[in-house]
């Protein structure tokens, strides 16, 4: 039994889940059963394939057929055509956005060609609710070897040698963090997994927890062994119900198999994991705030030092690592630090997962070696800008990051380079913008986020970001002055210099990077009162083109504020002082006589 | 302790490891400005959220600026406290605070004593470069405290006081980001909360966000009303602190000038709450001995007995330990005993109708404002004490009335309610009430004369103190707590059956009444409170009579009016009962 | 469910489980191993392609050959069904016709193992049967 | 003496929840999650009882409730509408979608319609960025919502 000819993998990530992949899965199972294929075909649900743009995804093994945008109704045709007759269902195959050709399998998709999946190694490959599939892929081997063959110091040495750095944003060397926590003397220590992914547009941690929860559990246990802790806590967003369910299932299975609990692998080492829920506060991604939240308090950060490694959860040494960081740990131990450190570049080793989104053809979750250039990510993996528009900027690092431009496209992506370019790695959000995006508005969008998510504890973040947002808003309303630009810059620098925690210290980055890279656009807004992308409504001017106007009065009759004057069969005129820029005149004009400037 | 070397503003500095930059700089004469930071060293109270960011300094090699209040010095550190980067950042941060702060300084209750205002002045802020929306909240007026939280700068001092020191839990930071502010639950008014009106939040608020309810105008009106006879009582702690309002060093006793000033304000009689304190000792001391002796006889009585002169403390147990409300003494506080006697005994004596007699109290306390408004302390709607004003309000009254305080002669209180003993005076400090009680109880119980009335073992600033006093072979175990958090500990012990005391004195404010919420602001300098304590004991030493039961006017009061302590009349006028103020859960 | 008590336990469990996953593991790197595509359209199935496919799957396993067996649609050689396409790493794909289990055995032993040619080759010229021609 | 009134069954349920976390104050956020699950929101009475059971001040409970955006003191509509305002959705026009909902429902974000049918809220990234802009009505996810599609979505529930 279990010797299937074909495996049908259905993406069960949140994105695909939202597009009825659950019904699709049931339909596929039913069809397989109805066609008597249950002994030949195994239908399973997996974690995210990363190709969220075209979900739900169905992948058929062993031929790697990659079906996109599959609806529940497509189950029948897949079974009858592909599984029985061996004919690929052409209309469900991925179509290259430019060549318009279908691509037969994932091996030939540009999206996957440049990727190297370490943290995501099992996502979209195994059934996350089946521990056996994880074990079959070397799961828990790293834990077993650590407990049975290595001392904690040796394991820490391996992690240090691998060059692994924190994937949550800061980039602190993981091995060093473990070492500091190990050296902190206390009877009780904690391993905390930071799964409070709050960066809007980044969802790698959720994907890993949904697609490969055991890798996180295993890594937490290894960390516990290294630092001398028997209690693991996962701080996870309550907004991630699927990830929570999968994690709970995985923890229960690991306990059943004796991989969590007492005397793991006969080593005398005990370790277990509890869940703590976040409740919608971005700042709780900051480790001290996260710890306070777990203590039942408001998620306000406190001054470091003392670092959590020395004094964390209830004053005990606490090692906080992010999900993606942890997911890298088992492969490093299994395949050796040398293997890992050959991937990436000098200071940034291994891979990084990015959530590619925005005006790009292939939205999704990708994992590439550190040092890959933005161009490779955007034009090869992402297959370029949507609708053939012109690339304008890419925002990395979420609200803490900055906007990079054309000139940064060939910069290798790593921690240092991104900071040098005025952005940062952050948790790995990567939002692509095109010519239709107004960069002042983009900066405003991020500040709006920071203002809403500021905890309010320190002045620069509580009031300073509010003021930044107000100035940006003023500019987009057409009321900005050149002095406002100076104010933006000075205030941004002061906030960076004085804010208490990482959220505040990085919150002006979207402002500074857009000021640096799109200065002309800011000047246009404040001096010429123009928004080249047309996004700032207040800066638009609706005007009537005299040559085209036939005097039909349609515009004047429909104008809600009577801003248009003109007699029948005469050329009409829009009074700019009254116009509210609603655009109705343009909509109603049948002669293309209304223009936006 | 490990010694480390560093450089601050080019100066070589040696300090011990673990010292903050702020403290190390201060030791070497460099005053880094602070706003949210508060350290009452002698009381072991520290507020260090590092939230205001005014104290930032540059530490070489560090990416961003460091808050001096919360950054520990390390060996070899090079610190700049006032280069252009630091000054620009500090000024900008201050401008940001000011940009979300009303600018009605000229009519603000804190005008001239506001720490934010002082800082803006010192830093030379002349223009706000960053203006925008200001946060607005509903103003909240309770019987004692006004919350005008538009003026809150989120220093969190009040929150720390209310929760960590007092463990009252009326206040918490609420909301998030720009709308975050310190408020009671559900942003309801304080009088819907568990607030005890101890006023410690007001005592530490750097701005006008938390102030007392001002009753000076009521007093002015009463004084101006020819149909009213207006009398005043002044609490012991007032005389040890009022001088600060007129530039005198902390700990200067101004009893004589205070009396003179009150007289010039137009009060018909200037009396002393100390008199009522002596009266309290008669009642409370008798109650203590009563319970003690019944206990010694093997009767089941509530012991330890707890003092009840502190109104914030009374509020505290009514809210938090309502099931234990039979343990405190039933004796009213001196303020209320005074009011009750004034509007009966004294009113009769001077032939003034109750409703035409106005009793004003000057208190170091804000809870007294609430206490005098309690329904049980009124007769036919006429309160025993009409208005209670704080030490600070009195200073305002004196200044408004063109009285040159410094040139006033020393004058005495009027009689009969102005005569007091040293025992009454020490009511103003932690340990004082119980010491006063011991002086009287000892003599009553043992029938022997007490030679040495100074019970040093009951004095001090330690939060929880205990001592055993030998009542001629009978050991009396006494506990003392000040600060409601410490009171809670002793109360919890009683609840858990672990308490071994016979009597416990509790004062809500750290230091006792000398550290009350109505006193001149200490602005974080706890040596002021210590100096006031010293002054109180000095006043005690200077008194001719130092035991309450020896006060001739007290003796006369019992002879002519009350009969004996705990008599029916005394019971009616001088004792009270307590209420359950906790919320009841009912089901639909 | 078994309680895993040691590294040895885990490895044994893993070995047992790996078979179930091998199909997916292999398809992760198809280019590094022998690929067999069995034409499984109606004509192919009618002439026994299913049995041939199962034979390959089982025999590769038994003979410890790293190979991927997939099915494909009609290759257009309906006269010679069942037809299969075999790709040995580094070599051009070769199509065999009239493949029954006996023939399959021969293909494995001779062509796949030793590189010897076997009768039944259909000489064709194409790039890949994967890329759908209709769409070109 | 002020009173707090709750239905008896819910009160017991709430106390059981607190008990299941050992009345441990560090579990406050977990307790609040469960309580919101029972009541749909966290009215003042519920917070009072939680404060009492966990032996913490109700001001503290409210401080926590008002800090986290997941917790609400207002009952949600029968069909709670949440619009994702993650960056991907923003870039793909989520703001216009919000405006459209506001226009149709005549309420602001954070409010509930007078008939209690719909409530409107924003959230940050549900992780369905491929479907941006994303709208959730209850548990149901609508992807690639254009402003002119708003009316149709609402019609499904009326």
Low-confidence stretches of chain B: none
Q: Tell me the number of structural domains of chain A.
A: 5
Shape designation of chain A: globular
**Helix fraction of chain A?**
25-40%
**What is the average of the pLDDT values of chain A?**
92
Strand content of chain A: 15-25%
CATH class of the largest domain in chain A: Alpha Beta
Backbone shape of chain B: globular
Q: Biggest sheet of chain B, open or closed, and with what strands and sense?
A: 5 strands, mixed
Lateral strand order in the biggest sheet of chain B: 2-1-7-5-6
Let me know the number of strands of chain B. Answer: 23
Radius of gyration of chain A, taken over Cα atoms and rounded to an integer in Å: 27 Å
Task: Return the average pLDDT of chain B rounded to an integer.
Answer: 96
CATH architectural grouping of the largest domain in chain B: 3-Layer(aba) Sandwich
**Strand sequence of the main sheet of chain A, in spatial order?**
9-10-8-7-11
Number of domains of chain B: 3
How would you portray this structure in words?
The complex is a heterotetramer of chains A (597), B (588), C (136) and D (158). Chain B has 588 residues and is of the alpha/beta class. Chain B folds into three domains: 3-99, Ubiquitin-like (UB roll); 105-126 and 135-213, Alpha-Beta Plaits (2-Layer Sandwich), CATH 3.30.70.20; 217-574, 3-Layer(aba) Sandwich (Rossmann fold). Chain B has 19 helices and 23 strands. In chain B, the strands form seven sheets. Chain B has a five-stranded mixed sheet, sandwiched between helices. In chain B, helix 16 (484-495) links the parallel strand 21 (474-482) and strand 22. The model of chain B has no long low-confidence stretch (mean pLDDT 96). In chain C, helix 3 packs across helix 4 (101-114). Helix content of chain C is 40%, strand content 15%. Chain C has two domains: 1-27, no CATH class; 33-122, Glutaredoxin (3-Layer(aba) Sandwich), CATH 3.40.30. Chain D is of the alpha+beta class and 158 residues long. Chain D folds into two domains: 8-65, no CATH class; 79-155, Glutaredoxin (3-Layer(aba) Sandwich). Chain D contains seven helices and five strands. Chain D has helices at residues 8-20, 28-39, 44-54, 58-65, 87-91, 94-105, 150-155, and strands at residues 3-6, 79-84, 118-123, 135-137, 140-142. The model of chain D has no long low-confidence stretch (mean pLDDT 88). Classes of the chains: A alpha/beta (597), B alpha/beta (588), C alpha+beta (136), D alpha+beta (158). At the A-C interface, strand 1, helix 5 and helix 6 of A face helix 1, strand 1, helix 2, helix 3 and strand 2 of C.
